[in-house]
Amino acid sequence: MHKAQRQKDLIDLLSINNVMSISDLSQRLKSSMMTIRRDLEYLDKKGLVKKMHGGALMVKQEPGQPSFFERIEEFDEEKARIGKAAAAMIKNGSIVFFDAGTTPLAIIEHIPDDIEFTAITTGLMTAVALCGKPKASIINIGGNIHQSSYSATNYLAIEYIKRFNADIAFISTKAISIPSGTFEAQLPLIEVKKAIVSVSNEIILLADHSKFEAKSLCHSIPLEDIDTIITDSKVSPEIVDMLRNKDKKVILV
């Protein structure tokens, strides 16, 4: 198993069980105990788990951070404008992947009811909102549920995602830095986002101005994998110029 996948699966197991022994992790991940110890040491240094004698404890991520529903309210006017611009990209017959973030969720209310399209999503809340579109065919990706984002994660979600081909993917992010790309605060979300990008023809990043020139814990999507960025008019002109100089289409709303 690839190192990054094994570490993500390790975090998924600890997220479910909270505390596990190295022996149990070794058996579940089909890896040697020495390999698991090295993974735990690395993840302990990153602050994702707490290594203990003979096992590990899951560390709750980002204490005090706003909940999913609180994040919906953050920059809600900007998200509404971004969502409206993104909705205009969906045409009859489109196959559209929706990331589980709050900004992709803002797209749905702006999609006309008479548009026939296929929607694929890792987000529970996104799937529920899409049910209000009478001509949408909705596919909800299953897997372990990441509780703070209501998103499907782990290898089950990734393998299911790989079965599809999408015309457009709408991706959200915790932060974006130029030229690195996007960043996330929580490791389990990253491989799912990468899988969505790998099966989609056009990658649309949705990010309000607060996300720019910032970083979070883990690098996620390289800038070169992103085709278009939809953001609000409060983003600085220097950032817009930098993105366009990197051959990125930037839509300001």
Describe the model.
The chain is an alpha/beta fold. The chain has two domains: 3-58, Winged helix-like DNA-binding domain superfamily/Winged helix DNA-binding domain (Arc Repressor Mutant, subunit A), CATH 1.10.10; 68-252, Rossmann fold, CATH 3.40.50. The chain contains ten helices and 15 strands. It has helices at residues 3-17, 22-29, 33-45, 68-73, 76-87, 102-105, 124-130, 154-161, 188-198, 237-245; strands spanning 19-21, 49-52, 55-58, 95-98, 117-121, 136-140, 144-146, 151-153, 166-171, 175-177, 181-184, 200-206, 218-222, 228-231, 249-252. The chain has a seven-stranded parallel sheet, sandwiched between helices. The protein has a three-stranded antiparallel sheet with strand order 1-3-2. A three-stranded antiparallel sheet has the order 10-11-13, covered by helices on one side. The protein is globular. The protein starts with a helix and ends with a strand.
